[in-house]
């Protein structure tokens, strides 16, 4: 078996990893020296890849020999510094951590004991000082005023000694109730963290993880971060958190899953190597033979995919802190695990308790010019039946009536119809979204009540930002979006999704799609309604 070994030095100056030079197997030290020289510039990330080529099998094996940043202490860096890799991972999530808890010894009883002890000590000291001053006072003060003067001298000395000691030694916070201010966690940051990983490894609903039966052993520097990450995760959990519960265990594994993918992204690993890191982590949690396939099946079958993505983002954020050699934010971890455990609680409704009517919240208007487009295809299932133009025109007329009623109701403007596509402009984004949702509902109702036999209606909807062309139906970007849309789906782009961040609507990320007509890549989302 003939193998060829060489070392490749890659550098990243903000535009991705690029090959700098290649060395033979006996020139490893030269490769390391070149990497060190490039690394002297703080803006350049460097890594060394060891590649083994088998001439007989025509196969390659690659391993990371060195990567800048791993294995180095970064205590001198402040938490406000921005640190990014070529894959866009910024470790600068701004978050205000809660103050450390007060020591338990600062209780009301302890404070009272300190206060009484200081008062008695100061009384004794003031009495001693007055006794020393009494002969002087008797010499200069008449007898009828001595007691009054002695009292004032004693009082002044007592106050001078007592007040500073009380202010310094007595914990006054123990005498009033503590009002705990809850910290608001900006969840969108963790969703963005998870979406960055999803885009990096193209993890969408149709993706199936490649589970290899044998996992290569992770490099030593990667193991160090995995062990440190798991140690801090398990050490930060509450004492009453049981890892024997399968639901709790799944939540912890989702956090670990996000952490391993973040470490893989930072090191420039592929998804199979990321699975090796995950396998090493689960060996610590489950034992020598963890079932990685069972974890992926549990993650895929979990009903609330949004919460699973949130836990993945939290794990990525915490691993970023470990990579920066910072203290892990235990508050975020505890709040996340608590939120996960609350999902498993199923409170039983009280018997004979009338349900209170919840007030209907008025949805806030989102002022954003946009365009809602509908593409409707009319077909008939019965091929033997002769379909006349009259039948098709009747269906077209009913669909136009549905659109006209909704446009008048939701303040739509400038209805443009061209072939199968109808576009309506809106000044309020929430009205545009409600328009397409109500349209699909009304069309389904019409289809069920229609007397036309074998009628098939294929409706595709999208809501996009306002195009610059006067004829939006001819916009090639709109045609590209409809190619990525299935029947009864509503698709939006990232601009519309960002405008609806604070709304009641939820979205499923479909991935970065390559558009055929425009030649661009766009992030598309499916509206969940």
Report on the structure:
The chain crosses the membrane at residues 111-129, 149-167. Keywords: Membrane, Transmembrane, Transmembrane helix. This protein is α+β, with helices and mostly antiparallel strands and 529 residues long. The protein has 4 domains: 3-67; 108-175, no CATH class; 187-343, no CATH class; 367-528, 2-Layer Sandwich (Alpha-Beta Plaits), CATH 3.30.70. It has 14 helices and 11 strands. The chain has helices at 28-39, 108-140, 146-169, 187-201, 220-236, 246-267, 271-286, 292-301, 305-323, 330-343, 389-409, 429-449, 476-483, 494-499; strands at residues 3-12, 17-24, 45-54, 59-67, 367-380, 413-418, 421-428, 455-465, 489-493, 506-514, 521-528. The chain has a 7-stranded mixed beta sheet, with helices on both faces. Strands 2-1-3-4 form a 4-stranded antiparallel beta sheet, with helices on one face. A hairpin with a 6-residue loop joins strand 10 and strand 11. Helix 6 packs antiparallel against helix 7 (271-286) and helix 9 packs antiparallel against helix 10. The longest helix is centred in the N-terminal third of the chain and has 33 residues, at 108-140. It is extended and about 130 Å long. Residues 71-106 and 210-214 have low confidence and may be disordered.
């Amino acid at each position: 078996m003939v193998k060829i070994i060489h070392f490749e030095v890659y550098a990243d100056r903000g535009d991705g990893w690029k090959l700098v030079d290649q060395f033979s197997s006996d020139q490893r030290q030269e490769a390391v020296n070149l990497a060190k020289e490039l690394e002297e510039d703080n803006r350049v990330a460097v890594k060394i890849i060891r590649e083994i080529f088998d001439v007989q099998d025509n196969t390659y094996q690659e391993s990371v020999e060195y990567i800048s940043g791993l294995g180095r202490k970064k205590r001198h860096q402040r938490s406000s510094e921005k640190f990014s890799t070529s894959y866009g991972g910024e470790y600068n999530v701004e978050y205000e951590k809660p103050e450390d808890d007060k020591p338990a010894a600062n209780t009301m009883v302890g404070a009272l004991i300190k206060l009484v002890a200081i008062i008695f000590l100061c009384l004794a000291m003031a009495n001693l000082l007055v006794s020393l001053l009494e002969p002087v006072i008797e010499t200069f003060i008449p007898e009828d005023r001595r007691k009054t003067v002695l009292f004032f001298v004693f009082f002044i000395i007592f106050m001078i000694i007592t007040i500073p000691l009380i202010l310094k030694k007595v914990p006054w916070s123990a005498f009033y109730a503590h009002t705990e201010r809850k910290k608001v966690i900006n969840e969108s940051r963790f969703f963005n963290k998870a979406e960055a990983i999803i885009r990096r490894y193209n993890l969408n609903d149709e993706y199936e993880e490649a589970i290899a039966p044998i996992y290569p052993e992770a490099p030593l520097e990667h193991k160090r971060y995995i062990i440190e990450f798991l140690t801090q995760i398990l050490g930060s959990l509450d004492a009453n958190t049981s890892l024997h519960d399968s639901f709790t265990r799944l939540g912890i594994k989702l956090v670990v899953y996000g952490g391993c993918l973040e470490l893989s992204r930072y090191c420039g690993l592929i998804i199979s190597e990321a699975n090796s890191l995950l396998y090493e982590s689960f060996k610590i949690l489950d034992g020598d033979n963890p079932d990685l396939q069972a974890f992926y099946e549990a993650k895929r079958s979990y009903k609330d995919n949004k919460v699973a993505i949130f836990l993945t983002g939290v794990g990525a954020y915490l691993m970023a802190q470990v990579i920066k050699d910072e203290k892990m934010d235990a508050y975020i971890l505890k709040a996340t695990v608590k939120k996960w455990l609350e999902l498993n609680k199923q409170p039983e409704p009280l018997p004979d308790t009338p349900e209170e009517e919840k007030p209907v919240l008025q949805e806030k208007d989102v002022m954003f010019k946009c365009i809602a487009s509908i593409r409707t295809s009319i077909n008939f299932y019965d091929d033997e039946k002769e379909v006349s133009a009259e039948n098709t025109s009747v269906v077209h007329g009913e669909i136009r009536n549905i659109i006209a009623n909704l446009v008048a109701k939701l303040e739509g403007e400038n209805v443009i119809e061209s072939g199968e596509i109808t576009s309506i402009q809106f000044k309020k984004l929430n009205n545009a979204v409600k328009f397409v949702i109500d349209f699909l509902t009304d069309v389904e109702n019409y289809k069920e009540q229609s007397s036309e036999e074998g009628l098939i209606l294929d409706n595709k909807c999208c809501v996009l930002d306002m195009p610059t062309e006067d004829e939006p139906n001819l916009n090639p970007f709109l045609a590209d979006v409809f190619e990525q849309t299935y029947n009864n789906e509503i698709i939006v782009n990232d601009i519309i999704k960002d405008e609806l961040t604070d709304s009641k609507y939820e979205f499923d990320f479909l991935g970065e799609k390559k558009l055929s007509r425009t030649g661009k890549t766009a992030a598309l989302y499916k509206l969940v309604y």
